[in-house]
């Protein structure tokens, strides 16, 4: 959605590596209004398009798509793409229309670009899982590739929203990564209870006086459902607000 940072640039570089020297790399920069709720930050979301264009040019992007909402959606548009299983938990609980907007905009972009490969970051782990399900269920002729979370030197997941954090909030936000690493460490020494690992993360985050937890969940990394006896890889995902800034992060843990 723009305000490109190093995390986005790693996606562009991955796309270039997959496309090869003779392939085409296209980037969409579009703050999509249909994935914002009525009380969310659509109007305040950063839109430094001149800087984004310069970064895309520096990375050798072949095609940059930057439409206006009124040019991308018809005034009387009434068709939506809505995934109904993976989108109900995690961020879907507090953002009920979000993934409908994501699926709709990405399906439109897939139709327009006719790309062979789509590259997405794993910071939005649920989003990637939902889009993979959409592509599978609707037989879309594209392969989606996930790229690991790009982090700032102190471990905070790179996000366009990080710029909204005050210095104190920015310092407190480091608890997210620390809590997730504590869970991975506990799993490595024998703690394989998803509930206990989830509680460890929640209790660690709660030690930050500025952290307001939206959710801390431990789910099967493949299905995003509650983990069961056959779960071999656990996803612990968190959404936490510091002040008015909502941040997400996650970690995969082998059981």
Could you characterize what this model shows?
The chain is α/β, with parallel strands linked by helices. It folds into 2 domains: 6-147, HUPs (Rossmann fold), CATH 3.40.50.620; 160-254, Pantoate-beta-alanine ligase, C-terminal domain (Pantoate--beta-alanine Ligase, Chain: A,domain 2, 2-Layer Sandwich), CATH 3.30.1300.10. It is 36% helix and 18% strand. The protein is built from 9 helices and 7 strands, in the order αβαβαααβαβαααβββ. The strands form 3 sheets. It has a 3-stranded antiparallel beta sheet. It has a two-stranded parallel ribbon with strand order 1-2. Strands 3-4 form a two-stranded parallel sheet. α5 (98-113) crosses α6 (125-137) and α8 (175-188) packs antiparallel against α9 (194-205). The two termini are 34 Å apart.
Write the layout of secondary structure elements.
Layout: H1 6-19, E1 26-28, H2 49-58, E2 63-65, H3 69-72, H4 91-94, H5 98-113, E3 117-121, H6 125-137, E4 143-147, H7 167-172, H8 175-188, H9 194-205, E5 211-220, E6 233-242, E7 245-254
Parallel strand pairs: 1-2, 3-4
Antiparallel strand pairs: 5-6, 6-7
Helix pairs in contact: 5-6, 8-9
CA-based gyration radius? 18 Å
- CATH superfamily membership of the largest domain: HUPs
The amount of helix comes to: 25-40%
How many angstroms does the end-to-end distance come to?
34 Å
Unreliable residue stretches: none
Shape: globular
* SS element count, helices: 9
């Amino acid at each position: 959605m723009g305000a490109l940072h190093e995390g986005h640039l790693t996606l562009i570089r991955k796309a270039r590596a997959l496309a090869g020297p003779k392939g085409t790399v296209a980037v969409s920069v579009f703050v999509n209004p249909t994935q914002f709720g009525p009380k969310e930050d659509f109007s305040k979301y950063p839109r430094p398009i001149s800087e984004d264009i310069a970064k895309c040019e520096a990375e050798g992007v072949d095609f940059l798509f930057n439409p206006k909402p009124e040019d991308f959606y018809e005034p009387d548009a009434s068709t939506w793409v809505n995934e109904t299983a993976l989108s109900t938990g995690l961020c879907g609980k507090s953002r009920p229309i979000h993934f409908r907007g994501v699926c709709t905009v990405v399906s439109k972009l897939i139709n327009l670009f006719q790309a062979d490969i789509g590259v997405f970051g794993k910071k939005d782990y649920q989003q990637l899982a939902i889009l993979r399900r959409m592509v599978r269920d609707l037989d879309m002729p594209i392969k989606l590739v996930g790229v690991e979370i790009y982090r700032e030197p102190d471990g905070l997941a790179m996000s366009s929203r990080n710029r909204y954090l005050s210095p104190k909030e920015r310092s407190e936000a480091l608890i997210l990564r620390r809590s997730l690493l504590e869970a991975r460490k506990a799993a490595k020494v024998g703690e394989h209870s998803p509930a206990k690992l989830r509680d460890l993360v929640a209790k660690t985050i709660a030690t930050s006086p500025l952290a307001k937890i939206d959710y801390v969940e431990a789910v099967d990394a493949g299905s995003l459902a509650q983990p069961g006896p056959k779960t071999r890889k656990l996803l612990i995902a968190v959404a936490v607000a510091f002040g008015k800034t909502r941040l997400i992060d996650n970690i995969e843990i082998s059981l």
